[in-house]
Structures are given as structure tokens and as C-alpha cells.
Amino acid sequence: MRPVVDRDSAEWWKRVAGHEFVVQRCDSCGTLRFPARVYCHRCRTDRWHWEPVSPTGHVESWIVSHQPFLAGTSEPYVVVMVRLADAPGCVMYGNWCAEDPPVAGQPVEAVFSTVDEDLSLINWRPRE
Ligand SMILES: [Zn+2]
């Protein structure tokens, strides 16, 4: 099973495959935004560029999924929602990569998980 890539997210997935951690920055009002969209939700212009940001943030929330993501797996897994340190208006989701459960507000950093040459995923682990 692979993530569904659409028109707006295709370039972002390509950059993640190259282990780049980027969000969009509006060229008009400067808003950092994620997930990728053509138009800025603040000022509605369509001029923007990719901007590298720190691959760090804080745990905002999480779930423990008991629904297998891949056929043949049965272990429950944790998906965290992370508010980005450099872009507090943006949240990203990813698998939790630690033995201990996440804690609200916990500082975290991104971990690129390479699936194949065309696909990497962004997961999260506690920041030292
Ligand atoms: Zn804007």
C-alpha cells in the first residue's frame, strides 16, 4: 500500500524521496503551509515556493491504530500528529518510532524511512 499522490502533493513526495524536509511558503504573504495546495488559504494567491524547515516539532496528539496498514501485520502502531517548530501553523502525521508512548508537547525530530527509490516516509522519534 502506498500513499495517494495527487497533483498538489506530487512534488512534495518527490522531495521527501530525496530526504528533503520542506513546506510551501506563500510568495505574497509569507505564510508557511502544509499540506501542499495551489492557492494560499490566507491571501488566495497562487505564487509560492518550497522552503526547507527544521525537521523538528512537538507532539500535538496521537492515536494507537489496531487496523493493519499492511496485510499480514497485526501489531498495533502509533501515529503522531506533530506541530512543526519552524512552522507552527503546520502539522504533519507519521508513525511513532520509539518504545515508550508519546507524550503531549514532547519534542520530536523527523526520521526519513526509505521504502524504495521513489518513496520515503516521514516518521517521528523523540528529540534528545
Ligand atoms: Zn499568502
Q: Which regions have little confidence, pLDDT < 50, spanning 5+ residues?
A: none
Question: What percent of residues are in strands?
Answer: 35-45%
Q: State the helicity in percent bands.
A: under 10%
**Ligands in the structure?**
zinc ion
Question: How many beta-strand runs?
Answer: 8
Element-by-element helix/strand order: HEEEEEEEE
What is the rounded Rg? 15 Å
What sort of overall outline do the alpha carbons produce when their principal axes are compared? globular
Q: Can you count the helices?
A: 1
Q: Provide mean pLDDT, rounded.
A: 94
Task: Please describe the biggest sheet, giving its number of strands, its sense, and whether it closes into a barrel.
Answer: 5 strands, antiparallel
Distance between the termini: 32 Å
Domains (count): 1
Physical arrangement of strands within the biggest beta sheet: 6-5-4-7-8
Task: Name the structural class.
Answer: mainly beta
Characteristics:
128 residues, mainly beta, five-stranded antiparallel sheet, three-stranded antiparallel sheet, 1 helix, binds zinc ion
Structure write-up:
The strands form 2 sheets. The protein has a 5-stranded antiparallel β-sheet, covered by helices on one side. The chain has one domain (10-126). The chain contains 1 helix and 8 strands. The protein starts with 9 loop residues before the first helix and ends with a strand. It has 128 residues and is mainly beta. The model has no long low-confidence stretch (mean pLDDT 94). 15% of the residues are buried. The radius of gyration is 15 Å and the shape is globular. The protein has one helix at residues 10-17; strands spanning 22-26, 32-33, 48-52, 56-65, 77-84, 91-95, 107-116, 119-126. Bound molecules: zinc ion. Residues 26, 28-29, 31, 40, 42-43, 45 line the site of zinc ion. Zinc ion (ZN) binds at residues 26, 28-29, 31, 40, 42-43, 45.
